[in-house]
Amino acid sequence: MTEYSSPLPRSPLLSVLRQIGNTAVTLLVTFIGLLAVTFIISRVVPIDPVTSILGERATNAQIEQTREALGLNDPLWQQFAIYLGDTLTGDLGTSIRTREPVLQEVARRFPATLELATLATVLGVLLGVPAGVIAATKPGSWFDQITRLIGLMGYSMPIFWLGLMGLLLFYGHLGWVGGPGRLDAVYQMSYDFDITPYSGMILLDTALNGRWDMFANAFSHIILPAGLLAYISMAYISRMTRSFMMNELGQEYITTARVKGMPEYRVIWVHALKNVMVPLITVVALSYAYLLEGAVLTETIFAWPGLGSYITDALMVADMPAVLGGTVVVGAAYIGLNMLSDLLYRLVDPRARV
């Protein structure tokens, strides 16, 4: 008589680790693809890196010597292999404009963009999620119409126009907020010499150093650009939250909860919103990634010394190592946020762990 043994149950931990490993491999392949795209761009743009370095008066001997030193005479596959190895080890090249390593310059600029995008995303979530939930519970009401109108305006209005109008009204005429930049000039000097820069994010650093006067000044400078980006984020988040909630409110478990006499606020804000949070995590992560990579115009208008303005300034002077290095960092942040959202998705939804 043949005995059959039932298969051993799969360990939840091993399943999660396997999925994390698969996700990491996918993201690594995606990152290599990003590097391939940036490498191709660096080779097809009508800008000669040697001319950018030496100038137009360089002799043919100097040009050939520099091309040999940069490896531009090697086969393309070999150039890409070197580029891939340098990038994976943290070498993003040297800026033609400043002659400094691009990674160091990006490290100085990125905290400003991170601070701006983080505050904007927090404000967008705090305003967008409740607005979307309330609009979904009262479809066709005046609140729903206003929420949809605000969302449509957020999609339609150019961010540079909103920034200019905001500066003209709230800074120029009313004086409610600080002007361009992260700090007033007197506070900027004090920040450079008296503040211990734990993170490079001024709000956090000034709070940790107990300089609340400087914190207030920094907040007056960041609130307008962060508010404008939060408006764009809120328009997207509120629209998606409304769509997700309307779908959940039509499910049978919601009807059953209401029939059993469960309070309406628990039906909406506990049961329905809990299931909405699963896809909403991805929405918030994508919105955050968009602000990290899409704040170029906002940083330019408000003279915000972040990564977006760094890439823009480098592009204006054909500093391609700086442009490509900044692009790689933004792409890496986007990929990292996608991986984080995937991990949070698996934590929130047990079905995704199978």
The portion of residues forming beta strands comes to under 5%
Mean pLDDT: 81
- Overall geometry comes to globular
Describe the biggest sheet? none
From N to C, what is the helix and strand string?
HHHHHHHHHHHHHHH
Over the alpha carbons, how many angstroms does the gyration radius reach?
25 Å
Number of helical elements: 15
Concise account of the structure shown:
The protein contains 15 helices and no strands. It has 354 residues and is mainly alpha-helical.
Structural commentary:
- With 354 residues, the chain is mainly alpha-helical.
- The protein has 15 helices and no strands.
- The chain has helices at 12-44, 49-54, 60-70, 76-88, 102-137, 142-156, 159-173, 185-194, 202-208, 212-249, 252-259, 264-294, 296-301, 307-316, 320-348.
- Helix 1 crosses helix 4 (76-88) and helix 5 (102-137) crosses helix 10.
- The radius of gyration is 25 Å and the shape is globular.
- It starts with 11 loop residues before the first helix and ends in a 6-residue tail after the last helix.
